[in-house]
């Protein structure tokens, strides 16, 4: 039996020190500052963001640190602790969408997106990244990278958007554009909003309806695990996790086509109509009956029921009804497995083991096709549940999972 690995977050001091050292080692000069942005875990509300729905992420204490210095020219040079001897280079001058390959597309794309948005004062930069957000875990290491970059560029180029919640939406949009248009990874905005707008001790209830203003589309919901004697366990299954292999885009396109057939702007409109109906089961049936094929019916059923599960979870947790909150976790995962079909064996096994070993509820989190699960457990139980999952993975010949302690942490900030 191999002991499960727990990934602890980097302290502020350690993150700043390591990012600064990597920067100095590579560029032989000091950075102008160090910034950081967190990964996130979504409590509930999966694949709802791009359907104008509701989701409920928290920021993790696990963050990506960026040491950065602006340049006078348009060259970008970036290095990461994943490969500390390899500098990736690009030039913003004349850069087009998808013009940068590899991981450096994410930070380079942020500067490109800001320039595309009219911020011509943004030029090149040198940067060094150090992160404890596990790659490929479904915990949004990419948003941690793009959001930390956006905050750093906002600061060094004096854009003035990073100091307010409403202003940060401009930076969020640049981070989203970087992922979608430069890196080619579809994202609906949940990750970037969580990384930039979460507050300590709270989950971010994010309402993704496009007609809402930045001040209208979020509310902070108390998420105090200690109050109820709970822990939130995150288990990174280490199953391969890819969002840019077409599966995500395929489901998004199916949802958009379903909305067109239903004659609504997005599936949130359909979900709200069902929620307000006197007979919700009949309203859901009538909605699904209007769709032409089984796959589309399943996708829509997941989205509209998941939006309602977010509302129900917020109420249940606020009332201290942890049993109900756990049941909603379970229902969410089962819907993602059967109707949205985004789970893989590792995710299903991890969820099953957690449920059998005392979790109130467990579900996959993130885009799926690999990544992580979360489980709501009594305080002191995380280590034991994670070990049970690791043992089952070993017996099945899966990659060894890793576990993370999750608490509701603050959003992106300047660290030094």
Offer a quick outline of the entry.
With 416 residues, this protein is of the alpha+beta class. It has helices at residues 12-27, 105-116, 141-156, 165-182, 190-197, 247-262, 267-276, 280-289, 294-318, 322-338, 345-356, 382-396; strands at 5-6, 33-42, 54-55, 57-70, 75-80, 83-91, 125-131, 202-207, 218-222, 230-236, 361-365, 372-378, 402-406, 413-414.
- Unreliable spans are none
Average pLDDT across residues?
96
- Share in helix: 40-55%
Strand content: 15-25%
Counting H and I runs of at least 4 residues, what is the number of helices?
12
Radius of gyration: 21 Å
Order of helices and strands: EHEEEEEHEHHHEEEHHHHHHEEHEE
Report the strand count: 14
First and last CA, distance = 42 Å
Note the overall shape: globular
**Main sheet strand line-up:** 6-5-7-4-2-14
How would a crystallographer describe the biggest sheet? 6 strands, mixed
Structural class: alpha+beta
């Amino acid at each position: 039996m191999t002991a499960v690995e727990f990934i602890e977050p980097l302290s502020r001091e350690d993150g700043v020190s390591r990012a600064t050292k990597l920067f100095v080692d590579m560029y032989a000069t000091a950075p102008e500052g160090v910034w950081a942005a967190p990964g996130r875990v979504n409590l509930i509300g999966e694949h709802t963001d791009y359907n104008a729905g509701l989701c409920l992420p928290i920021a993790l204490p696990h963050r990506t640190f960026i040491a950065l210095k602006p340049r006078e020219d348009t060259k970008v040079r970036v290095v990461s602790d994943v490969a500390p001897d390899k500098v990736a280079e690009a030039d913003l001058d004349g850069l087009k969408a998808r013009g940068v390959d590899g991981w450096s597309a994410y930070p380079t794309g942020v500067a490109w997106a800001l320039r595309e948005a009219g911020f011509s004062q943004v030029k090149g930069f040198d940067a060094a990244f150090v992160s404890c957000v596990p790659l490929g875990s479904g915990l949004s290491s990419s948003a941690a990278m793009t959001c930390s970059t956006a905050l750093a560029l906002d600061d060094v180029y004096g854009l003035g958007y990073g100091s307010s919640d409403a202003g940060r939406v401009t930076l969020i949009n640049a981070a989203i554009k970087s992922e979608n248009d430069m890196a080619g990874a579809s994202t609906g905005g949940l990750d970037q909003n969580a990384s930039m707008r979460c507050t300590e001790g709270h989950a971010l209830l994010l309402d993704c309806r496009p007609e809402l203003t930045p001040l209208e589309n979020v509310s902070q919901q108390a998420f105090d695990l200690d109050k109820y004697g709970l822990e939130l366990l995150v288990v990174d299954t280490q199953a391969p996790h890819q969002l840019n292999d077409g599966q995500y885009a395929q489901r998004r396109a199916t949802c958009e086509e379903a909305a067109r057939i239903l004659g609504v702007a997005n599936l949130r409109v359909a979900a709200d109509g069902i929620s307000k109906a006197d007979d919700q089961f009949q309203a859901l049936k009538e909605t699904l009956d209007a769709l032409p094929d089984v796959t589309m019916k399943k996708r829509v059923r997941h989205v509209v029921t998941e939006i309602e599960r977010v509302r129900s979870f917020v109420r249940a947790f606020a009332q201290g009804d942890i049993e109900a909150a756990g049941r909603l976790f379970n229902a969410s995962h089962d819907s993602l497995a059967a109707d949205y079909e985004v789970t893989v064996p590792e995710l299903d096994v991890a969820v099953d083991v957690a449920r059998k070993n005392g979790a109130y509820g467990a579900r996959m989190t993130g885009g799926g096709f690999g990544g992580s699960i979360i489980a709501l457990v009594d305080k002191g139980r995380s280590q034991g549940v994670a070990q049970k999952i690791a043992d089952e993975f070993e017996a099945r010949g899966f990659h060894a999972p890793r576990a993370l302690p999750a608490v509701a942490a603050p959003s992106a900030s300047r660290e030094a």
